[in-house]
Amino acid sequence: MKVFLFLALMLSSYSYAQSEHDSQGGIQKNSGHHNEMHGGDHHEMGGTMHGSHHKLDKITLKHFFEPLPASIIDEKKNAALIALGKKLYLDPRLSVNNTISCNSCHQLNNFGVDSQPTSPGHEGKRGGRNSPTTLNAALHIAQFWDGRAKDVEEQALGPILNPIEMGMAKDVDVVGKLKKIDEYKTMFAEAFKDEKDPILYVNIGKAIGAFERTLLTPSRFDDFLKGDENALNDTEKRGLQKFISMGCANCHNGVAIGGNSYKKIGLVVPYETKDLGRFEITGLETDKKVFKVPSLRNITKTGPYFHDGSVATLDEAIEEMAEHQLGRKVEPEFVADVKAFLGSLTGKVQK
Ligand code: HEC
Ligand code: HEC
Q1: Which UniProt key words apply to this protein (predicted)?
Q2: Whose CA is nearest to atom 42 of ligand 1?
Q3: Which of 76, 238, 303, 334 could hold 330 in an S-S bridge, CB 3.0 to 4.6 Å?
């Protein structure tokens, strides 16, 4: 059923798909993944697809995407917790030599990234992976490129003790350090009112996580999804059509345009990387080179790209994706249109 409806979508909706050669091949190569397409009421799709040339109909859009919610945490009720989390996020005293904060690698005034392929830690040493943005990260199914932390609260406790990131030796050392700072005594007490001894390592994660839950970046694309047809220009709309018809939206979908599934890099055409991704967590052969599909919100601002930061430009990232994930060679016009659409995912205001 789903496969049939997807065929209907591919063949009837977009003149683009018909004018491209090899559109059948593209469909076959994708067919194993339809079951993971996002949400939507599949029964409604068939009929409405017909005759929708050049039009991005609401049902197709709803099938793939969802606008950002206004909020995912009660910011009033949790004001003290969030204020504490923000302070911790920005505080280099969470690192062994008081030089590195979360914000060093995930800069809030730079779309949550440091714009480097990999990031230097407290001794200048770099890990093997690119720093993903913290903006909208709380929406993901799990955290890290390989999904090894279940949420932002758990994730935040990792880098503080990571020897090449913030380099604190033990959680008790971090707690001891914070207990000597009066401002933290007050702020932890306010944020964790019911707790006798509120400065606990786990509470650092809770506070930072609460703060990260406020880092949502509504964009023009959200306005478009909510019905403002003028929120995107014609090039951006064409790019969105191509993004869907080419198959990008099979993986990059949902509220974060990604972040909600794991997929292999090099699904169709093998991709060269030493990083085995989720295999290192699960040990499953089928998880080799499998990564969390990244969110594409703010993507024009968060380069360099891919898990190792090896791809410098968004143009190149789009070309590589088309080739390795979909087995397609794309023209510069495709890249330009899709890139224009991706630009509409940039947050309108920065916190
Ligand atoms: C030295 C640089 C560095 C510092 C400092 C750092 N991070 Fe990260 N962060 C990274 C890297 C690199 C990754 C990806 C690692 C991986 O996937 O294995 C990451 C991943 C993340 C993610 C996952 C995002 C996603 O899309 O999966 C979040 C959230 C995050 N960091 C928040 C934090 C917080 C909160 C702090 C402070 C407690 C922090 N980071 C400190 C480099 C850093
Ligand atoms: C089969 C699933 C799948 C398909 C189809 C797919 N992607 Fe991806 N995409 C991924 C995965 C997985 C990654 C992470 C790869 C890595 O870093 O190793 C990724 C990464 C990206 C990145 C880099 C994100 C970052 O933060 O570094 C961009 C940009 C991107 N994809 C765009 C696209 C476009 C445009 C298309 C269509 C031409 C597309 N993708 C098709 C799964 C997919």
Answers
A1: Heme, Iron, Metal-binding, Oxidoreductase, Periplasm, Peroxidase, Signal
A2: 131
A3: 334
Examine the residue annotation and report whether 319 is marked as an active-site residue of this protein.
Answer: no
pLDDT per residue as tens, the chain (351 positions): 444 444 444 444 443 333 333 333 333 333 333 334 443 333 333 333 333 344 688 999 999 999 999 999 999 999 999 999 999 999 999 999 999 999 999 999 999 999 999 999 999 999 999 999 999 999 999 999 999 999 999 999 999 999 999 999 999 999 999 999 999 999 999 999 999 999 999 999 999 999 999 999 999 999 999 999 999 999 999 999 999 999 999 999 999 999 999 999 999 999 999 999 999 999 999 999 999 999 999 999 999 999 999 999 999 999 999 999 999 999 999 999 999 999 999 998 654
Whole-model pTM: value is 0.88
Say yes or no: 248 and 300 in one domain.
yes
Structurally, how many domains does the chain consist of?
A: 2
Instruction: Kindly give the distance from the C-alpha atom of residue 81 to the centroid of ligand 1, in angstroms, as a whole number.
Output: 20
Asked whether residue 350 is assigned to any structural domain, the reply reads no
- Same domain as 238, residue 201: no
Which residue segment(s) compose the domain that 228 sits in? Answer: 2-64+218-343
304 CB near ligand 1 (under 6 Å): no
The domain that holds 270 is classified in CATH as 1.10.760.10
The angle at the Cα of 81, spanning 79 to 87, to the nearest 5 degrees, equals: 100
Ligand 1 centroid from CA 150, angstroms: 13
Q: Which of 251, 288, 335, 338 to mutate to test the pocket of ligand 2 (most atoms within 8 A of CB)?
A: 251
199 shares its domain with 235: no
The answer to whether residue 184 sits within a structural domain is yes
